[in-house]
Amino acid sequence: MAPQRHADLARLEREVIACTSCPRLRAWCEQVAVEKRAAYRDETYWGKPIPGFGDPDARVIVLGLAPAAHGANRTGRVFTGDRSGDWLFRAMHRAGFANQPTSVSADDGLRLTDAWVTAAVRCAPPANKPLPAERDACAPFLRREMALLERGRVVVCLGGFGYDAACRHFGVRPRPKFGHGVEVPIPDGPTLLCSFHPSQQNTFTRRVTEEMLDDVFRRAGDLARRDA
User: Fold this and answer.
1) What is the Cα 52 distance to its own chain's centre?
2) Distance of CA 169 to CAs 10, 105, 162, 164, 194, Å?
3) Confidence at residue 3, expressed as pLDDT on a 0 to 100 scale
4) CATH for 3-226, among 2.40.160.50, 3.20.20.70, 3.40.470.10, 3.40.50.12710?
5) Dihedral pair phi/psi, residue 68, rounded to 5°
6) CB 188: neighbour CB atoms within 10 A?
7) CA distance 198 to 83
8) What is the pTM of this model?
């Protein structure tokens, strides 16, 4: 990886963490960090915006909605410390993108190979529903991140929100309907690969299963190697 690109990603990470563009989101994240969930009352919450995480040379980029209030907003790392992350990293481990199947804290030893995980919105939103203006305020971070992840060949879009953010970023028109396993090749760009989000709402109802996530990441690996 080029030293300049490494420095640019580090600069982007610092800017994400320091962002105060959305007062509603900042107030919510800080409130949650003080009030806490009973199970985590002895922990110090991160309570700040969440940067992306992974292999800077990744060919597979995973794009989710936003940090979870008691997940990444607590641990300081995207998809870490919540049930969605449990499902995600187990699938990535089985597909060879993660060195371990668990993600409980920012210093738990998790490393990603050929994969990067990020979110369209960098702060945990109330009710998991960012406002359009908050989504748009975060878009420049995603734009810079995608540009720096120059080896990216596949964007795994977790849920309709992630898919919408990817389509906005790449200017996809007309936009194919979102669905699990839907693929949208971008001319001179990556392939968008859709997956239902591994939220508890979807996993409890079996709208998404571990086998379905495995299929997505197996396909992501195939697409990344094909376009190498």
Assistant:
1) 7
2) 22, 30, 11, 9, 15
3) 80
4) 3.40.470.10
5) -85, 145
6) 5
7) 8
8) 0.97
Is beta strand 191-195 parallel, antiparallel or unpaired with respect to 183-185?
antiparallel
- Spatial neighbors of 180 by CB under 8 A, at least 6 apart, are 194, 195, 196, 208, 212, 216
Mean local confidence (pLDDT), 147-166: 97
User: Mean pLDDT, the chain, as a whole number?
Assistant: 96
6: pLDDT confidence band, cut at 50, 70 and 90? Answer: confident
Enter the tokens of residue 180: 């699990």
> Tokens 């702060």 correspond to what residue?
123
| Cβ contacts of 104 within 8 Å, gap of 6 or more | 75, 80, 81
- Residue 80 structure tokens: 């870490």
Query: What does the radius of gyration of the chain's CA atoms come to, in whole angstroms?
Result: 16
The structure tokens listed for 18 are: 């320091």
One-letter identity of residue 199: S
Nearest Cα to Cα of residue 153 among 78, 222, 93: 222
